Amino acid sequence: MSGKNFYLPLIAGIFIFFTTQTIWADTRVEDTFNIETKEVTKRKKAPPKFKLVEFTHKKHNIEYQISCGECHHDKDNNPLDLKLGDDVQRCVVCHTKLKKDKKDRKDIMVLENAMHGNCISCHKKINKKAGDKKGLKGPAPASCGKCHIAVKK
């Protein structure tokens, strides 16, 4: 085999490997992140009362064996079949209402309702399976203070 026939595929292979790694790294979802919505700013002058809620994909996906589609869904509420590296829209892209309407406090198009509904309903199911009739006490946090930790003054 001549040098040209050997090195050309090798160089092409190395180029493809590093290109795909770069692309994958750019779309990779962070494992642990703070659930933060820059579109909603409730604090004006006062310091925050609560820390941002921390979420861990690895814990939910690998340890608890929850698929991506349990949380991420399409406009008809059908689970999305996501894989590592897929682009995912933030909740606020579809759940665009940022303030609750006094007439419909449970409107699912309100971002806060969508996020709370998604997490809390799942956590309550887990707690009910663990033996708590109301689903508020158990292995999965389902009350405000379990996720929204007060900032120490």
Which key features would you list for this structure?
two-stranded antiparallel sheet; 153 residues; mainly alpha; 2 strands; 2 domains; Cytochrome C3; extended
Quickly describe the structure:
This protein has 153 residues and is mostly helical. The protein has helices at 3-27, 57-63, 111-129, 144-147; strands at residues 32-35, 53-56. The longest helix is centred in the first third of the chain and has 25 residues, at 3-27.
Count of β-strands: 2
Low-confidence stretches: 21-27
* Topology-level CATH name of the largest domain: Cytochrome C3
Integer average pLDDT: 80
Topology overview:
Blueprint: H1 3-27, E1 32-35, E2 53-56, H2 57-63, H3 111-129, H4 144-147
Antiparallel strand pairs: 1-2
Description:
The chain is mostly helical. It folds into 2 domains: 1-29; 31-147, Cytochrome C3 (Alpha-Beta Complex), CATH 3.90.10. It contains 4 helices and 2 strands, in the order H-E-E-H-H-H. Strands 1-2 form a two-stranded antiparallel sheet. The longest helix is centred in the first third of the chain and has 25 residues, at 3-27. The protein is extended. The N and C termini lie far apart (72 Å). The model is unreliable at 21-27 (pLDDT under 50).
